[in-house]
Amino acid sequence: MTYRRYQRAAMAGALLLPAATVGALAHHQYVTGGGFALAAVVLAEAAVREHRQHRSARLECEEARRRAFAGRPAPLAPCCLLARTSHGQAHDHTCTEHSLAAFLAQVETEHREGA
């Protein structure tokens, strides 16, 4: 995303051009000073526009993430003790601490049936 990069560049220009405007006016170059002042206003508007676009894109990404999970929160990292001991190999996107309890209960049941 380049919105932030453009916003920062426009803001830097909008902050530096008033100094150029003052310098031009101090040397009685009124047309040049007016041009610098106009450019500062245009760059300030561009910085605001890029900020709005960045915010809009960020909100769209957040909304898409919420729709993708359909109300389910993202898994914890690591999501459970089993994931921690298996270095992330024994869990999936629905894994929670409750899943670990269910897994351990299943292992105990299989162990009792096998013994």
Provide structural commentary.
It is built from 4 helices and no strands. It is an all-alpha fold and 115 residues long. The radius of gyration is 29 Å and the shape is rod-shaped.
Helix/strand layout:
Blueprint: H1 3-26, H2 30-69, H3 81-85, H4 97-114
Features:
76% helix; 4 helices; 115 residues; mainly alpha
Helical residue percent? Answer: over 70%
Structural class: mainly alpha
Largest sheet entry: none
The total count of helices amounts to 4
- Please give the alpha-carbon distance between the first and last residues: 59 Å
Give the strand content: under 5%
**How does the overall form come out from the CA principal axes?**
rod-shaped
Low-pLDDT segments: none
> How large is the radius of gyration?
29 Å
User: Which sequence of SSEs, written as H and E, runs from N to C?
Assistant: HHHH
Question: Would you report the number of β strands?
Answer: 0
